[in-house]
Each structure stands twice: as C-alpha cells, then as structure tokens.
Amino acid sequence: MSIASYNVENLFDLHKDGYEYQEYIPNTASQWNKRNYKIKLKNIAQVIADLNPDIIALQEIESLRALKDLRQELKNRGVYFQYYALADKKNTTVKVALLSKIPFSYSKELQVNYSYKYRNILETKFLINNKELYIFTNHWKSKGGPETERIRSAKALLKRIKEIGHEKNIILLGDFNSHYEEHKIFLNKRRHNDTNGKTGINHVLKTLCATSKASDVSLKEDCFYNLWYDQDEEQRYSYIYKKEKEALDNIIISPSLLQGNGIYYKQNSMSHFKPVYLIDKENIYRWQSRGKNPRKHLGKGYSDHLPIKAEFVVEE
C-alpha cells in the first residue's frame, strides 16, 4: 500500500468566492481562466498518475469543486480515487484534502485555532483487513511567521493523538513547513526562533527519539519516527529555495508501524518523486507566472514542491 503527500501549489477553481489570492480571482487580468485552470489540472493529474499512490494527502486545494475536478482529470487518465475528503469547515484560502482508492471509516477536522491564519488538520480513519489506521493531513503555517505558529498546529495534533492513543497505527503527513531537523536549522533565525529552541515537529511530536535507518530503530511509545531518516541524506528534500534543498514535507509514523506486524512501514521505501519533467535546471519546475499586481499565469509548470511517498505492508 503506497501513501503519498503533495503540495500542489494553489489549485483554485473558477468560481469567485471572495477568499482568493489576487492572482487567482477568475477571469481577470491575471489570466486565471478556463485554459490555464485546465492546464493546471492536467499537469497535477499527470504527476499523481505517474506517482500512482493508493492514498494521497494534498495541500493547497481551494475547494471541493477543485478537488472533484482534479479527481475527474485523474479518472480520465485511468486513475480512479473513489473516496475523497476535504477540510472545508473553515473558509481558509487553501485547504488540505485526501484522495483514496481504499474506503475510510470517517473523516473529520481538527481545528488548530479560531483564526483564519491556521488551516484545519484532516483526520481520516481506515479499517484495512480489520486493522485500524489513522492518517492526519497537515499544512502548517509558513516560514513567514515564527515557530510559535507551527507549535500551535503540533499541539492540536498531539492532543488528538493522546485521545486516540500513541499505540495505534498513526501516520502524520503533509506540508509541515518544517525540516525534519528544524531544531538545528532555525536556531539562529530570530524571526523563526521565538521559542527558545523548541520546535513543533521535533519537540512537541517527539521525532528525535530515533534518527537512524528504520532497520535500526526501536521507538518509545510516545515518540514518532520521521521517514526521512530512512532515506540517504542527500535525497532528503521536497522543496528548493534559493538553491537550498529543504524537507518541508514529511511522513511521520507511530511506533506500531515499525513493528513488522499487521500494518507496517516497508523499509527503504521513503522517497521524493522527481521525474525529469518536474525539474528545471537546479530548481523544481513550479507553476509559472510573471509580473505583479497581479501576477499573470503563463499556463505551464507544476508545483513548487515535489511529492513524497512511502510504502506499507498490510498483512492478510
């Protein structure tokens, strides 16, 4: 069973809701129009179809309409995700979603904060061969703000995990806007480090208990394991900013998924997805626009993030 995550970079529909970024107000000077929308759908569907996961968490989906249009474009390509969910109880500009070929028992949203600055987290519960699996799709606050903002999301997530129980099969994934060793890279950045060195991903979620290959890991019950550690260090990235490679997207698992029974992580399967068409020289071939006030869409490119993917074994 393959599980993936992909920040698709602003998949907006063509309906004006009043929450859009300026350059995504449909049929204006920005040229966010039917032609460019169809190209964006086609390009993102190409990536997902080539990746071919059983379950994929998505970030930066504007609406249920946009999610359904993407699902239809995938179906046209012979890739059918029968089941889907969107965290749309809050009118944030973009939202998280999930597409699945496997039925789930329920999906619901975790509210991080009343403020529209914070996107809701999507919780989805699966029952696969009578084995429970909880998947939490995240899109934490960007690096435009300090670490306290990402800690709020981490704490909301941890509160729910404690209710479920750390011993359960739990996968946390998405765009955390946090490196797998954020505690190291943000230390000397004053606008980020307003927490005296504490981070949401590393300290609240306890992802530093084990930092070696999965084959060598034994986790304490209340810790989580970041699957980037099961990949060669030079390949641990999903984003490139000013030629610096970063791992903003993560797949993080609970201890039970390392124990080799029921449902468990397949060792050495964690990776980013980097076909040649997603790379432009030293950069990721993101969705292209130019100018300002507003920027104009050029009708080419994909996303500023690479998808990430891991495989899991499900016993009969």
Note the main sheet: 7 strands, mixed
Number of self-contained structural domains? 1
Structural class: alpha+beta
- The CATH topology is given as Deoxyribonuclease I, Chain A
Could you please describe the fold and organization of this structure?
The chain has helices at 34-51, 64-76, 147-164, 182-185, 200-204; strands spanning 2-11, 55-61, 83-86, 95-100, 106-110, 121-128, 131-139, 170-175, 225-226, 239-241, 244-246, 249-253, 263-265, 271-272, 279-280, 283-284, 289-290, 296-297, 308-314. The protein is α+β, with helices and mostly antiparallel strands. The protein has a single domain, classed as Deoxyribonuclease I, Chain A, CATH 3.60.10. The strands form five sheets. Strands 1, 2, 3, 4, 13, 14 and 19 form a seven-stranded mixed sheet that branches. α3 links the parallel β7 and β8 (170-175).
Q: Which features would summarize this protein structure in a list?
A:
316 residues; alpha+beta; Deoxyribonuclease I, Chain A; 7-stranded mixed beta sheet; 6-stranded mixed beta sheet; 18% helix; 28% strand
